[in-house]
Amino acid sequence: MKLVITEKNDAAQQIARLLCSVGKPKADKVYNTPVYRFTVDGEEWVTIGLRGHILAPDFPTELKFDKKLGWYAVSQDGEMLPADVPDGLARPPYESKRKPFLKDGIDIKGWKVPSLPYLVWAPIEKLPAEKEIIRALKNLAKKADSVVIGTDFDREGELIGSDALAMVRDVAPDVPVSRARYSAFTKAEIDHAFNNLVELDQNLADAGESRQYIDLIWGAALTRYLTMAKFGGFGNVRSAGRVQTPTLALVVERERERLAFKPEDYWVISGEAAPQGAGEEDAFKISHSAGRFADEQAAATAFAHVEGASTGTVTSVVKKSRTQRPPTPFNTTSLQAAAAAEGISPARTMRIAESLYMDGLISYPRVDNTVYPRSLDLRATVKAISGVPQYAPACRELLSREKLTATRGKTETTDHPPIYPTAAADPTKLEPAQWKLYNLIARRFLATLSDPAVIEGTKIEIDVAGEPFQASGDVLKVAGFRAVYPFGLKKDEQLPALEQGDTVDVRDMQLEAKQTEPPARYSQGKLVQEMEKRGLGTKSTRASIIERLYQVKYFKGTPSGPIEPSQLGMAIIDALHEFAPRITTPDMTSELEEDMTHVAEGADTQDQVVYHSRALLAGMLDALIEHKDDLGDAISDAVTADAKVGTCPKCGKDLVMKTSAKTRGSFIGCMGWPDCDVTYPVPSGVRVSPLEGEAAVCPECGAPRIKCQPFRQKAYEVCVNPKCPTNYEPDLKVGECSVCAAAGRHGDLIAHKSEKSGKRFIRCTNYEECGVSYPLPGRGKLEATGEVCEHCGAPIVVVQTARGPWRICVNMDCPSKEKKAASGRGRKGASSSTKKTTAKKSTSTKKSSSKK
DNA sequence: GCAAGGTC
């Protein structure tokens, strides 16, 4: 039996399909791992797909996190474990004159705790990361007569293959092994690769492994340093890495530019014009041809001329057509950028794309390629998605053409095609976000086959009282690809038909003082593109690295909108920039690439390159340890600044977000504690951020006002003091209790607000006897209607929401709500107290309806 | 409670 090992399941399937000479490959499973069996010239073949790397590099267990000792590197009796040191080079001594750091050298129950620099020189092991796959691989290897490594044709692929080979050798030391190198899933390419098998390139694999080691050593040592320099407690890791830190530095650098930006004053003169006697709809905006006046006096003089003007004369009308080329095919980066512009973060885009790929709706989503291969049948793909009604007209038009021509992007690789739709999707069967992304991909595909758009730009110049004014507008003349791909475009602006010499009405002349704006923050999409440009990360890792920077709170808030670094993020960059500058720039990646090339070419060994990197890090760590206290203070100051939500009305110190040690819940507390005992509750389930300026202090009670961002809902601002008049609502009678009425007594249903939790609810004045209570929405002004629900007899109230009034029956278990409840929304309100009323409700409903 | 790189 011949065993073929690929990097992923998809490749195992494709290779089986392409090499199988009779019939179709048989899909099978070995311990839950899919494999594909087929025969070639009477010989039995099996392909198995790995899941990327199956081994992970790590430090020996005694150097890993320990529940009692934390991240203090440990070795028994102080014995140092030797790292691999190249011949002729000595490992530098670490017991030098360094200051103790992290309980350096302390005895704990007979174990010595060495210093952090030890980690820099520690050996690294490779441990199984995908045990199930390794088990299946070994099982097949035992039975194999020969093995072919068919992982991706790149450095990581060679490493993944080399790790797989090590696993094979565990159980089959003598089985012949060769390597197939291919870069496209076509019959010709795969045939050629398997007819011209080569040896695994151990140098290339070693180069990849050096990358793994160096990333781990730098990442682990610096992360432990930053985290322990001022221990922030559980869940407060302060990470650093070859890619994430330079990425953070990009964002911080932009923020510094914004902070250093000195806005300059300028003035603009603008107004409205319209053809004589025309209506409001034909009015268009005109502005002074000088654009921005840097000199206020000059602007005032010009404005004085036109201020009272009521007419102007058209001095020229220039029309210019321009074509807009259709967009190029999507690769990972351009998809992430386009999706980010539609409000889906790169990380989310990749999660959704993965699910669409698994459902067979789109092609493989991790690609650099932006040129459709010849083997891709464009016409069949158009046909395949023409079943989606929204695309039918565009597909029909394309299918009527004799030949389909696609645009081409700059990057051409042949391993995978650009991202395109592989089947028609049913919008009703997809999650909204899935459909949004599928729609983007499908429309992009159709756009790449469509004609250019033609836009007619019009520039009108108008003389108003001797001052030159102008207006410009764009009109889509030929829709072309824009008919099917309306993303990322400006709105059309139609100017009325005017000719030179025409007189126009002029009104609303204004002189406005403005200021120049600082450079914009990075959007998610722009940052991914910038990372690619600077060689940071890969198509598969950039999205998750940005997400990581949010997770460790170096970026503020959650991934949506422009990226703003936190004080912590800025402090981290400041500190590393001073003492370990190498980790803060993309240079480390490019130098690593050079080293890798040397290893791959055999000019250097893995040990030499890793040793060199360890030595560089050791020097920087020396400087960092030297300044440990300064750095720890800077970090904790930054964390406090990030947590600040306002100023204490009692003692004037900072009010910060705190986490209760007991309940792990959040609350707002004064930094003056224990001298000052001011605390406020925080609404649960929302993300809280401070407000700035006047909005930050409650005019009624002086407590801070904060911004609350509920999950996927509109943000609102609120005073943190629950006793503040702005939060207090007088109890409101919303109806009479039907349960009490049925029992022959009187009970009023009153809406209350809990001072403690801020939660609102309705309770009967005879609650002790009838147990009637209903939950209410947390926010929105409440109004009584006096009406009762026709289904259950509970009172109807109106809640004023941001989207307008909302009429609801307060009974969460009302039969009229059953359908909605099944679909998910608002189920949480059905607390035990409402359930209590349910049983009684059925009887009361009958009684109250019989009363009518 | 460590990075970045693969992939599910």
What does this structure look like?
- By secondary structure, the protein is an alpha+beta fold.
- The chain has six domains: 128 residues, Rossmann fold; 139 residues, Topoisomerase I, domain 2; 122 residues, Topoisomerase I, domain 3, CATH 2.70.20; 92 residues, Topoisomerase I, domain 4; 72 residues, no CATH class; 87 residues, no CATH class.
- It has 23 helices and 31 strands.
- The protein has a six-stranded mixed sheet, with helices on both faces. The protein has a six-stranded antiparallel barrel with strand order 12-13-16-15-14-17.
- Helix 16 packs antiparallel against helix 19.
- It is globular and about 90 Å long.
- The termini are far apart.
- The structure holds one DNA strand of 8 nucleotides.
- InterPro entries: Topo_IA (IPR000380), Topo_IA_2 (IPR003601), Topo_IA_cen (IPR013497), Topo_IA_cen_sub1 (IPR013824), Topo_IA_cen_sub2 (IPR013825), Topo_IA_cen_sub3 (IPR013826), Topo_IA_core_domain (IPR023405), Topo_IA_DNA-bd_dom (IPR003602).
